[in-house]
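Our collaborator T.R. sent over the components below with a one-line note: 'Predict the complex.' Nothing else. No constraints on interfaces, no templates requested, no preferences about which chain binds where. So this is a plain run: every listed entity goes in together, and whatever single assembly comes back becomes the starting point for the next discussion.
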Amino acid sequence: MRLKRMWAMFMARNYEFFRDRAAFGWNFLFPFLIIAGFAIIFGGDEHREFKVGVFPCMATDAAVAAACVPAPLQETTHILYIAFSDMAQGLDKLKHHKVDLLIEKGTRPVKYWVNENSPKGDILEKMLLGMMVAESQTDMVRQKAVSGRPIRYLDWLFPGIIGMNMMFSALYGVGYVVVRYRKNGVLKRLKATPLTPFEYLSAQMLSRLFVLLFSIAVLWAGCDLIFGFKVEGSYLDLFIMFLAGSLSLIALGLVIASRGTSEEFANGLLNFITWPMMFLSEVWFSLEGAPRWVRGMAETLPLTHLLRGVRKIVNDGAALADVAPEIIVLTGFTLLFLAVGALLFSWNK
Amino acid sequence: MQERVILETIAVTKHYGAVTAVKDLTLEVPQGICLGLLGPNGAGKTTLVEIIEGIIPPSSGQVLYLGRPRSTSFREKIGIMFQQTALLGFMSVEETLRTFQSLYPQTLSVEALIRLCHLDEIRKQMNDKISGGQRQRLLLALALINQPELLFLDEPSTGLDPQARRNLWDIVQNVKREGKTIILTTHSMEEAQQLCDLVAIMDHGCIIAHGTPGELIARHTKGIRIVLPAGCLHQLSPQIAAEAKVVDGRTIIRANDMNQAMHALVAAGIDLGRMRLETPTLETVFLNLTGRQLRD
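Returned assembly:
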């Protein structure tokens, strides 16, 4: 093994990444835009989970529309009230799931309509019924549910977005690119030199690792500056967790890169891997309560373990020992993928 | 003194499924010469060369370098200029040379390569911003970077304009003068005639003719073609007219004895000012041996 040869390939790949300004910019802009978008949607006071129509009410503003409903219903911040001039208009919106429930203004008892095909409508109905009953008449007493610093949805989502970006960058940046190199003859040219497959693949891996860690650092700093994220655990532990996760995802990219010359096939294969990983690894939502087999499948994906570890450190202040299971699993994935990738690798078409 | 053989293929065969691309091929390449591998498309030239280069393994047979099986250091001794190779993206010409320089233990200096392959004007340009001729010169420079003893050139002048082609040939001639052995794959008979000391013509996975260009022309062509205007045919003596045919409005006579043919034409009162002579070339040899049927 010659470090000089590995270094030359490492630098060549880095030049390609940093000089391709369009791809470089998009690598940072894409996750930032997603986080910014979610911050706008979920971060402010304007977000309302449920939409309730009220008629007859001539208001154009949601705050004014809220005045058209009985006082107890005005107290919640989770409902957006939308005014309609008449019942027909309201029922049409309800039928098309534009609103979750419809109330007629000024009726006693309050008349309301629910779309029976709307799960949100069912929940909302029970919620409104509860709100119309005085607290003294209920059998429930509200306790303080969560202690300590509250975790915003954005705090929970942020590691997911970073992880998703890492996944795409690792798999496409290695898998797709090496297949392209094989197709256009770059690998054949390199095979004609003393460069060994181990040196070449190691350089690809290290280059992508450098790029990933650099991207995470820039994204984290940028988003922290704007949205104010707080890491409960240690930054060193977080770095180690990202390192283990990055290596496992890059190694998976090397498996895809090991054979083939069809970019279309590589793209299809990458989609086949990235889409389930995106939905099953809790990037966007928790799998708590999902069927057992779904949760079982999620455990076979490296991104699941990476995100679980990162969230434990960021949100719960976990130490390195607490995330040891995740790090061990990710290291296992890395070794497995590297072995398979090295076994299958071919320079030729 | 017997020539030293730098490279030998012994009974090399390569199958792709039911197709045999190279068939039991044995070849010796003397050191310090330029060997031209000619053949129609699908003849097996590229497969043979890639087996020799170590890019693909043979199905059977052996390749020897300096009388021994090729070792891992073989790649440090050879230089390859592939016909279809993308260059590393987002790198300048000079950076590309430096990157490849790092892959070998013994190399020419980048400055020497830039001088040798006339790359000075484009050294700072990105690989994807250079012309076809400049690109071929860069690929040649990459092939020469490790001062190879054995150089493979795969259709080096394909797609180049006449100036760029001549320029590339000049560089190859300079490399030849340094005593390097060159194996050149080409479709250009002119290129083979300009650069090659020995020529091997391949077809259907076998070498069907082998020798110097002069030997091949002498062995596989007959006489000189005399081309005259079509109207001359009726003026010719019956003896010469029997050897003549009219093709595309021209009278063509194949003459084995030029002196006799000239006497006969003068005696028949033919205006020799309108006569053209076509001497046989490697192209004639190639077409005589491989036929005129189109190959794809």
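Summary for T.R.: Chain B has a mean pLDDT of 88.
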